[in-house]
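For reproducibility, we list the full input for the zinc ion complex.
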Amino acid sequence: MPPQHKVIAINTPPAKPRPCTDPDCRGRHAPAERIALAESLCAARGNKLTTLRRQVLELLWERRRPTGAYELIEALKRRQARQVAPPTVYRALEFLMSQGIVAKVESRNAYVPCLHPERSHDCLLFICAGCGASTELEDSRIERLLAEDAAKLGFSMTRRVLEVAGTCGSCVAAGPR
Ligand SMILES: [Zn+2]
Ligand SMILES: [Zn+2]
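The corresponding predicted structure, in tokenized form, follows.
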């Protein structure tokens, strides 16, 4: 009987990156495909999605909600069954952000995977105070308005992550607790 991970590796073909061209996409992408896409984006830029970088990205995709560095470090320790040096995790996060693969949610001091690292766009995040889930949207109208406002100010924008706090549809439907 071969080890479990060998069986999975044989039965599951590696995911192929499929760049998304739907401007109104609501983000229904398979995590494995998005991770494969991140890997190919890194490779095209001459960078490598190392094991640690990949594991951090996988954990963020598994959670689908803003996740803090401390929680990631603890999850990595469990996954690897050994100590994980926090600075290496911070460096992995910095790398993933520099590649547009992960975004930082400042209001939560946490991180989310970017749905569409294959195209440059602003990150518009709706974050539920009830269940903690975050939903990412792209809205070209808001991007245009921000660009116009910045131009009026002569302001050069770098980080454009918009965070909207509130209650998600499922939590609204569930009513007050
Ligand atoms: Zn998409
Ligand atoms: Zn919710």
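Residues 5-9 have pLDDT under 50 and may be disordered. The two ends are 49 Å apart (CA to CA). Both points were considered when choosing residues for closer inspection.
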